[in-house]
């Protein structure tokens, strides 16, 4: 890594730069934890962040002191601390979209016997912000914080299809850089997703993430300035056949978004025969 240059007078510029760099790296350490990680060790953090061992040791010590990480002396490993949990809970609990969407999501999950989730983009992945399951013993067991590949999932492809073209192209470019051997597949998947989304209003993904999972995704752009999100309904192929996805689950997700938009606007639920709402576009995602 190139060394930062200090200002000639040795004043606050260097301190400001170093503080910003430390903050960025500290956030990288927190981002290294996923919903599947109970604990991570120093070596895990070094491998996931690419940061030097000394930097990881220094920053984890600071994060433990601030309560953003917890250190288990017996295991010699770190877990997410109460300050991080509180921060995440505050963000989720203050979201009107999540609050209004959850009962509608649960209703659809119960109707389909599948799992319904709401998420948004984080880098080149989709992260779950809310998740509702049916009582079925074979429902997908993903949770808030779970991460999914953006280009292999119905949620991610619906999100990409709704993005502004220039921003979408930038994201696809980053995906190609990360996985150059899949450039042709990426272009095909995204092009098909855009076409399906324009025609049907939803995206179907059959076995593209795991061969035994079918799913449908729709994007939702809140009119209050909140970030673009996507919703998905997915389950094993024995529960969600291709025909069921196209004929029932997709239209069910579109009805969910119409009802969610109405509730956020303080309006009564639209009738089942309402047409698909217009796509809302903004200058940024």
From TrEMBL:
Q: HTH iclR-type domain spans which residues?
A: 20-82
Q: Which residues cross the membrane?
A: none
- Using the record's annotation, list all stretches that form the IclR-ED domain: 83-266
Coiled-coil boundaries: none
Return the InterPro entries for the record: GAF-like_dom_sf, HTH_MetabolicPath_Reg, Tscrpt_reg_IclR_C, Tscrpt_reg_IclR_N, WH-like_DNA-bd_sf, WH_DNA-bd_sf
The yes or no answer to whether the keyword Transcription is present is yes
Q: Which Pfam families match?
A: HTH_IclR, IclR_C
Composition-biased stretches (Polar residues): 272-285
List the keywords (alphabetical): DNA-binding, Transcription, Transcription regulation
Tell me the segments the record calls region Disordered. Answer: 264-285
Keyword Ribonucleoprotein part of the UniProt annotation: no
Q: Which PANTHER family match?
A: HELIX-TURN-HELIX TRANSCRIPTIONAL REGULATOR, ICLR FAMILY (PTHR30136), TRANSCRIPTIONAL REGULATORY PROTEIN (PTHR30136:SF33)
The protein in question is named: IclR family transcriptional regulator
Q: Which organism is it from?
A: Shinella yambaruensis
